[in-house]
């Protein structure tokens, strides 16, 4: 099954939105297969956002991401990479639809509460980076109530 890496950023943790993010993915019908609270440190965060290292906002992004604990999760289910991105909403909260996490809870791109992998390839890369210990395989009791 497809998996994605979802992370509640330090602002989301500080604002008590971890449960809200989990709730939305649970209610959608996805399966949680890994989760931890972490203080990843600068090196890890620079690896995670390596693609953006040349951007002007990169130093600020790393400072922001390194300012407190993050909640790291892997969610599994049909089209979860793309659907997860839809649930997060557009990067810039001004463009995020109401009903999305960023649309409902954010006003600033530099404090946008959550991260989600942008492709299956980057999901697999990010899951390996954040969960080198591996994920949990388990049978969820409602599987046949979520998928035909
Ligand atoms: P992530 O899920 O966090 O990867 O966001 P994204 O995929 O929607 O956007 P992208 O990967 O392009 O950027 C990563 C993060 O950098 C964003 O979520 C923002 O927190 C931050 N960021 C992106 N663009 C800007 C910008 O123009 N200004 C500032 N201050 N931050 C930005
Ligand atoms: Mg991104």
Automatic annotation (TrEMBL):
<keyword id="KW-0418">Kinase</keyword>
<dbReference type="GO" id="GO:0004550">
    <property type="term" value="F:nucleoside diphosphate kinase activity"/>
</dbReference>
<dbReference type="GO" id="GO:0006228">
    <property type="term" value="P:UTP biosynthetic process"/>
</dbReference>
<feature type="binding site">
    <location>
        <position position="91"/>
    </location>
    <ligand>
        <name>ATP</name>
    </ligand>
</feature>
<feature type="binding site">
    <location>
        <position position="112"/>
    </location>
    <ligand>
        <name>ATP</name>
    </ligand>
</feature>
<dbReference type="GO" id="GO:0005524">
    <property type="term" value="F:ATP binding"/>
</dbReference>
<keyword id="KW-0067">ATP-binding</keyword>
<dbReference type="GO" id="GO:0006241">
    <property type="term" value="P:CTP biosynthetic process"/>
</dbReference>
<feature type="active site" description="Pros-phosphohistidine intermediate">
    <location>
        <position position="115"/>
    </location>
</feature>
<feature type="binding site">
    <location>
        <position position="85"/>
    </location>
    <ligand>
        <name>ATP</name>
    </ligand>
</feature>
<dbReference type="Pfam" id="PF00334">
    <property type="entry name" value="NDK"/>
</dbReference>
<keyword id="KW-0808">Transferase</keyword>
<feature type="binding site">
    <location>
        <position position="57"/>
    </location>
    <ligand>
        <name>ATP</name>
    </ligand>
</feature>
<dbReference type="InterPro" id="IPR023005">
    <property type="entry name" value="Nucleoside_diP_kinase_AS"/>
</dbReference>
<feature type="binding site">
    <location>
        <position position="102"/>
    </location>
    <ligand>
        <name>ATP</name>
    </ligand>
</feature>
<protein>
    <recommendedName>
        <fullName>Nucleoside diphosphate kinase</fullName>
        <ecNumber>2.7.4.6</ecNumber>
    </recommendedName>
</protein>
<comment type="similarity">
    <text>Belongs to the NDK family.</text>
</comment>
<keyword id="KW-0547">Nucleotide-binding</keyword>
<dbReference type="InterPro" id="IPR034907">
    <property type="entry name" value="NDK-like_dom"/>
</dbReference>
<dbReference type="GO" id="GO:0006183">
    <property type="term" value="P:GTP biosynthetic process"/>
</dbReference>
<feature type="domain" description="Nucleoside diphosphate kinase-like">
    <location>
        <begin position="1"/>
        <end position="138"/>
    </location>
</feature>
<dbReference type="InterPro" id="IPR036850">
    <property type="entry name" value="NDK-like_dom_sf"/>
</dbReference>
<dbReference type="InterPro" id="IPR001564">
    <property type="entry name" value="Nucleoside_diP_kinase"/>
</dbReference>
<feature type="binding site">
    <location>
        <position position="9"/>
    </location>
    <ligand>
        <name>ATP</name>
    </ligand>
</feature>
């Amino acid at each position: 099954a497809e998996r994605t890496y979802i992370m509640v950023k330090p602002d989301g943790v500080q604002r008590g939105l971890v449960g809200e993010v989990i709730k939305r993915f649970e209610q959608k019908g996805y399966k949680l297969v890994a989760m931890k609270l972490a203080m990843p440190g600068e090196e890890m965060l620079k690896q995670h956002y390596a693609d953006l290292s040349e951007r002007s906002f990169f130093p600020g992004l790393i400072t922001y991401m390194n300012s407190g604990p993050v909640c790291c999760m892997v969610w599994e289910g049909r089209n979860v990479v793309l659907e997860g991105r839809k649930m997060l909403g557009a990067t810039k909260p001004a463009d995020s639809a109401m009903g999305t996490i960023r649309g409902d809870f954010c006003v600033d791109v530099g404090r946008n509460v959550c991260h989600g992998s942008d492709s299956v390839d980057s999901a697999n890369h990010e899951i390996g980076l954040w969960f080198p210990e591996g994920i949990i395989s388990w049978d969820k009791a409602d599987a046949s109530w979520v998928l035909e």
